[in-house]
Amino acid sequence: xxxxxxxxxxxxxxxxxxxxxxxxxxxxxxxxxxxxxxxxxxxxxxxxxxxxxxxxxxxxxxxxxxxxxxxxxxxxxxxxxxxxxxxxxxxxxxxxxxxxxxxxxxxxxxxxxxxxxxxxxxxxxxxxxxxxxxxxxxxxxxxxxxxxxxxxxxxxxxxxxxxxxxxxxxxxxxxxxxxxxxxxxxxxxxxxxxxxxxxxxxxxxxxxxxxxxxxxxxxxxxxxxxxxxxxxxxxxxxxxxxxxxxxxxxxxxxxxxxxxxxxxxxxxxxxxxxxxxxxxxxxxxxxxxxxxxxxxxxxxxxxxxxxxxxxxxxxxxxxxxxxxxxxxxxxxxxxxxxxxxxxxxxxxxxxxxxxxxxxxxxx
Length: 363
Hints:
It comes from Phoxinus phoxinus. Its EC number is 6.1.1.2. By secondary structure, this protein is α/β, with parallel strands linked by helices. The strands form two sheets. The protein has a five-stranded mixed beta sheet with strand order 3-2-1-8-7, sandwiched between helices. The protein has helices at about 50-65, 75-80, 85-105, 120-130, 135-140, 140-150, 155-170, 185-200, 245-250, 270-285, 285-295, 300-325, 330-355; strands at about 10-15, 20-25, 25, 35-40, 70-75, 110-115, 175, 210. The protein is built from 13 helices and eight strands. Helix 4 (about 120-130) packs across helix 7. Helices cover about 50% and strands about 10% of the residues.
């Protein structure tokens, strides 16, 4: 499955607010198309939902044709900051691998691997953790939010951002696709690159945030919140492996309002506006084109049109996920090969890090 790169990417060097705009691989100024090393990770929480796909995974697919080296990691070390059933975790890792491949992540154009299969992630995280202060981590938003939810948190949850920084720096990544809520964690990676370089000599590049103009998909049952896997309302979230009947039911039950006309007014009509945004995203049309198409329809009729468009978009992905999941050995082999490629990049970096830190004798 191929996706065209239509997004406008913004590269933000958050340490000095330097902003450069690029569009579909062509620079808007005099600079040429960026080249570099891209890294991003996703937790193995099972099959992604429509919001994950439209908000991140479509862009991941496009980035494979934009950069010289692109790495995507299923970050299972991060996932165990919350209690996990081992068998469910194993299944979730393979579900995520199958989903990424079905969405268009191509092991011949990028490196897809399982984080825990590359031990250098944990080793670099320890070294970087020794350069990080506790107050620095305490002020990061994820720790504040999750520790308040549980009234306390594990050491792993507390140091989670340091492992994120290690994930990025281990491959000397230059660009990291992130959501706006992750910018502060990327700033920690930038800070740690500077701290390490100041102490041991220039070594790590400072990674830049790669923000795309993403489509935010809201919950079908509560359009004031994002679509989420953890939403207890089963009809609120469309998953990539939902059947056509599942999708039709969920969209038919989507919360709208008492006005029958289809309009796009996110503030006053968030429910129907969410359907319009979703329809535009899966069909490749603009919001204006979608509204014109819906002219004369009431919201009930329009929901059927949206459901058909979502089914058309997701049906090939669903069938490919099914095909891939039927061959567990193939998925495990792909992840093993990806880990071998990742180690090929990680080992030389860690060898140099060990020398710089003083773990090796001689030259």
